[in-house]
Amino acid sequence: MTTQPTVPAQTMKRAIAAILAAIIAGTLLVFTPQSASAEVALSSTVSATTTAGQWLYVAYEVGGYSGLAVLDNSDPSHPVQVALLPRGATTVGEGGFTKEQGVVQVLRARGGYVYALSDEYVGYGKAKWLTVIDVRDPYHPRVVSALRDADTGSTAGNLFLKGDFLIMTSAGATMSRLRMVSIQNPASPVVVSTYTGDATSGTSPSVAFYGETVYFAKLLAAADPKTNKRPFRVESVDVSNPNAPFRSGMFDGKDRDDERNVVSIVAKDGYLYLGDTWAIRTYDLRDPANPHRSSVTTLPEEYGTINLQEFRGNYLVGVGSGDPITRNHWFLTWDLSDPGSPRAAGHASTSAGTARGASVSEDGYAYELYGNGDYSHVRLIDAREPSDPKLVREFVVPAEASVSFNPNGGGGQMDEQTSLFPGQLERNKFTRAGYTFTGWNTAADGSGTGFADRAEYGFSSSVTLFAQWKRVEYTVTFDANGGAGSMAAQVGYEPTSLTANVFARAGYRFAGWNTAADGSGTSYADRAQFPFSSSGTLYAQWSAEHTVTFDANGGVGSMSGQVEAFPAPLSANVFTREGYEFTGWNTAADGRGTAYADRAQFRFSSSVTLFAQWKRVEYTVTFDANGGAGSMAAQVGYEPTSLTANVFARAGYRFAGWNTAADGSGTSYADRAQFPFSSSGTLYAQWSAEHTVTFDANGGIGSMSGQVEAFPAPLSANVFTREGYEFTGWNTAADGSGTGFADRAEYG
Q: pLDDT at position 667, please?
C-alpha cells in the first residue's frame, strides 16, 4: 500500500505529520524522546494519520474500536492534543466511531474535514466504511456522516483526494474496485460511479494514484516454492472523468524468472516503481500501448523485502524488512535523477523489529516506524545527506490514559478526560464558595505534583487530579465621603458584619454605606452583613440635620427644638392652655398648613416651626329637680358663666340653690351663680320647706295675712292698732313670756 506524499515546511516541522500514511499497521510516535532501548507496552494501536495545516489527526484502535486524536503541531518538537473523538459510539454517526465501523486504515484531510476509511468489524459483515469528521473547530471534532460500502471479498483499501472527489479503492483475491465519491457536501458524500477491475485470482493488489490514473498491482499465482517468484499484473484506471472511470491499460510481468513478491507500488511522472524482495523494479508507462520494464535495481539480501513509501523531492523512500536472522531493518533512499533507473543514495541500519514504513520531510528528516512484539516505535533519521542518513532519536507510542478530576471540597461536575497523546487539561469547572481555584495536584493536600488550570499533561498514565483551593480574602475600604475620622480597612472571606462606623460630620447624621459615593450603588446599614465576595470601597452616606421648633400658639409651657436627620417621631407635647384641648401640630398657626398628630412620624427633610393647635373644651351641666317639678335644659360652657335661672318648683318648698350632691353635701351654687365650667357634671336642686307665721292682734284691731317663708326673712310690718296702746313687737306668747321679736325682725 502507498500513500500521497505530505510535504513539511521546515526542519522538525510536522514531525509527527511526516509519518502520514506511512503506517501500514501498528503505531505512531510518542512525544517524549526515549533512549534507543526504551520500550513501553501499548494498550492503543495507531492505525493511520494525516495532517492539514498546523493540525495532526491520528486514528488509533483499542479493543476493536477506533478513535481520533486531534493535535496542535505548531511546535513539531512539542505537539499537544486538543481533542479526542471518543470511541464506542452506540449509533453510527453519533459522537464517534462504533465498533461496527472497525479499525481505520486510511485518513485524508482537506477543507476542515477528515475522511476515514475503515474495514467493518469482524462479525458485522464485509464492508468498507467512509466516515466524515468535521474538524473546522479542531477542539470539537464531530462525525457528520458515515457511508457503508458493501464489499465482499475486499481485504485492502485506500483513499485518494481528487478535487471535489474521493477515490475509494478496495481490493481482494479476485477483485479490484474503485468508487468515485463526491464530497462537494462533506456531510453527505455520494458515490457517483464505480469501476470494477480485473477478477483474475491472485493476492490483494497494492494501489497507487498519480495525476489522473489509479494503478492496481497484484500477484497472479502462487509462488514457486523454490524461487518464491510470482507473476504479477498491473491495471491502470483513468479517473479524469469522475462519472465514468475506465481501464486505460493492463500488462503482466513477462520475465517470470526474475520477478519476486510485489510488496508495494508508487507512481510518478509516468513511471511505476514496484518494491519486492531485494529489488526495485521500474516500469515505463508513458506509452500506454508499450509498457515495459526500464530497470531493476537489485539490493543486498540483508535489506530484505522493500516497502516503498513515498516521494520527497527527487528521492524515493523505502524501508527494508531486514534479514531473517538479525531482523535489523533498514532506512533506504534512492536518487531519481534518472526516473527510469533509481540509484541507491543511502541507507541506515536500525535496531531489530518489524519495519512499518517511513516518510521524509522536504528538509531531509525521515520518520521511520517499526514494531517489536508488543512495542511500537518511531525513529527520527537525519537524511539531509541522502548518501549518509543517521539515526538521531527514538520515540515511543503512549497508551491511552485518563484523568479524573476531584473537586476536593468544591462543587460542580467534570467528566473524565481521556487522551492518547499529551494535551491540555480540561478547564476547571468546579467552584467553592469563599475560595479561588489555584490549580490541580496529584495529592488532595497539595503535596504531590501540581498542574495549572489547562496545563499540558503527558497522559502517560491515568491519574486523579485534586482541585487546589485558596481562601479568597477581600478588602473593604471605608471612605468618610465628606466626613471626618479614620477607619481601618476590613478584610473578610465570607459574609460578615461590617465594622461600626466612627466617622462624623458636623450638621449631618450617618446614614449607612454605599458602594458609590453618590449613593447610586448598593446600600448597607451600619454593621450590616457584607458578603465579602469582592474587594471595594464603601462610602459613608450622610443625611443633613434639620430642626423642628415648637410654638405654644396661645398655650403656656416650654419645649426645646428637636434636631434629627432621618424620619423620627416628634417630641411629645408639653404645652397647656386653660380651657383648651391640644389637638396636634400644624405648620401654620391658623391650622391651614400641614397637620401632624402628637408624636407623629416626621421626615426632618427641612427645618420648620410647628404650631400647637388648640380646641376649646366645652363642659355640660345637667340640672336635676331633686324632688321638684319642671324641666331645665342642660347648660354648656367652657369658661366661668352664670348658671341658668332655676325653673323647678316644689309644693311646700322654696328653691334653695344647687349642689353637686343631691343631699347637699357637695359644692353649693346659688341660683344664677357663676359656674367655672371646668368639668361636666350634675347640679341638684336644693329645697327648703315653707313655714307660716300667723299674726294675732292680741287685743288690737286690724287684719294681717299669715306670712309664709322657707328661709329666714324679716317679718311683715305690723298693721294692727290698739286704742291707747303702742305696738312693742311680737311674742310667741300672748302674755309676752315667750320669745320676742321686734317689728320686721328677722325670723328664722
A: 96
Q: What is the mean pLDDT of residues 484-496?
A: 94
Sign of the torsion angle spanned by Cα atoms 392, 396, 402, 403? negative
Express each pLDDT in 312-342 by its tens digit: 678 787 777 776 555 567 778 888 999 999 9
Residues of the chain with CATH 2.40.128: 1-35+42-150
- Give the pLDDT score at 13: 32
CATH class in words for 546-616: mainly beta
Beta bridge partners of 207: 216
Q: Show the cell assigned to 457.
A: 499533561
Where helices occur in 431-554 by DSSP H, the ranges are none
* DSSP E strand stretches across 245-353: 246-252, 264-268, 271-276, 279-284, 292-298, 306-312, 315-320, 328-335, 343-352
Q: Name the amino acid, one letter, at 373.
A: G
Phi/psi for 315 (5° steps) reads -125, 150
Distances from the Cα of 621 to the Cα of 27, 385, 644, angstroms: 122, 138, 10
308 and 316 Cβ atoms separated by less than 8 Å: yes
Of the two residues 83 and 509, the one the predictor is more confident about is: 509
Q: Are 223 and 230 in contact (CB under 8 A)?
A: yes
CA 693 from centroid of its chain's CA atoms: 118
Tell me which of 381 and 268 has the higher pLDDT. Answer: 268
- Residue 309 banded pLDDT, cuts 50, 70, 90: confident
Phi-psi domain of 677 (left: phi exceeds 0; alpha: psi -120 through 50; beta: other): left
401-471 — its CATH code? 2.60.40
pLDDT above 90: residue 469: yes
667-691 b/e with 16+ CB inside 10 Å = b?
ebbebeeebebeeeebbbbbbeeee
Q: Which CATH class is domain 474-544?
A: mainly beta
Task: Check pLDDT > 90 for residue 162.
Answer: yes
Q: Please, where in the chain does CATH 2.60.40.4270 lie?
A: 474-544, 546-616
In CATH, the architecture of 619-687 is Sandwich (2.60)
Contacts 24+ apart (CB under 8 A), 243-246: 243/180, 243/192, 243/193, 244/193, 245/178, 245/180, 245/193, 245/195, 245/214, 246/195
Could you tell me if 23 and 35 are in contact, meaning their C-beta atoms sit under 8 angstroms apart? no
Q: Report domain 1-35+42-150's class.
A: mainly beta
Q: Who's near 628: CB < 8 A, 6+ residues apart?
A: 648, 649, 650, 653, 655, 685, 687
286: number of Cβ within 10 Å: 13
